[in-house]
Design brief:
Length: about 300
């Protein structure tokens, strides 16, 4: 959970910091620094709003738990988070190529229209989007205990690293390759999204919301294979395996629970869990490939027009 919190916080905070940094840098470049205070007003309001959303989520999730409906809310949050994380990977793969130019154009339009409220609204929306997404993702990876993720070392170090990277980007004389950061974090976020998908499928099959093509003679969801002897997905599974067989698994359950939280590892997946997990990666890779080809085609057309 700590590693997931770290990656999510780092990615979301870095994007917000970069965009706000571009706004402030551009205002300085065009000698309009008087607008800086309104940018910071928007940022502070967005942080307050994001914290408020976290409190609402915590309250709602607790209420659902007491009503015995937490599983349904968990499934919904996991699936929506999977979609949002996937969209983030695809969106940032495209937007990071010219992030600064797009932000500067937007600020120029805002200043043309004029008004402090416009500047506050823009900086507010930039930060609150990242804040709300962070809250949503935290709800997904913790099963609703958002406070646990907010207080983890992962969230703290993710925020600190994002601040350091953002500061270096705008202050250092060396050009930091943000594409590399986004590419690396995109890989990890894609893994988290795939893990959330397979966990949602597993819960749906456990409570009977989703069927299976392979059942045991007793009518239960059948397992495609069983790797408990190699690496149980939880310390409790390790204890049970040791009790039933008298043998110690090759890798202990503490490692298994890490891979389950981070990658969606399952010691005995159903056919649907296995197929959907790898199909997810295949679809994302295909979409990224199509996006790259489309970008290369546009560049070629622009180069031909320039020639």
């Amino acid at each position: 959970m700590d590693l997931q919190s770290f990656l999510i916080t780092f990615r979301e905070a870095l994007e917000a910091i970069l965009i706000v940094g571009v706004i402030l840098t551009y205002l300085k470049k065009i000698e309009q620094k008087q607008w800086n205070k309104w940018v910071w007003v928007g940022v502070v309001l967005a942080l307050i709003a994001s914290y408020g959303v976290a409190l609402v989520f915590q309250t709602v999730l607790t209420g659902f738990a007491t009503m015995g409906s937490q599983n349904y809310l968990k499934i919904g949050i996991m699936l929506v988070s999977c979609v949002l994380l996937s969209h983030m990977v695809l969106f940032m793969s495209q937007q990071s190529r010219n992030l600064q130019g797009k932000v500067e154009n937007k600020i120029t339009a805002i200043l043309t229209v004029g008004g402090a409220l416009n500047m506050i609204a823009h900086s507010f929306l930039v930060v609150v989007r990242e804040g709300v997404e962070t809250v949503f993702f935290f709800a997904a990876i913790t099963g609703g205990d958002i406070q646990k993720a907010l207080q983890s070392w992962g969230a703290l170090f993710g925020l600190l690293l994002a601040i350091v990277i953002g500061w270096l980007f705008f202050k250092s004389t060396k050009k930091i390759q943000l594409k590399t950061f986004f590419r690396i974090t995109s890989i990890f976020l894609m893994m988290i999204a795939g893990g959330l998908l397979v966990q949602a499928v597993g819960i749906m099959q456990d409570i009977g919301m989703m069927g299976t093509v392979y059942k045991t003679p007793g009518g239960e969801v059948g397992e495609l294979y069983n790797l408990t002897a190699i690496m149980p997905e939880h310390p409790l599974d390790e204890v049970q395996y040791l009790r039933d067989t008298g043998n110690q698994p090759l890798i202990n359950g503490q490692v298994g629970i890490f891979f389950k939280a981070f990658l969606g590892y399952t010691q005995n997946p159903s056919v649907e869990e296995f197929v959907l997990y790898w199909a997810f990666y295949l679809v994302i890779l295909i979409l990224l490939g199509m996006q790259k080809k489309r970008h290369e085609k546009v560049n070629q057309e622009l180069n031909q027009d320039a020639a």
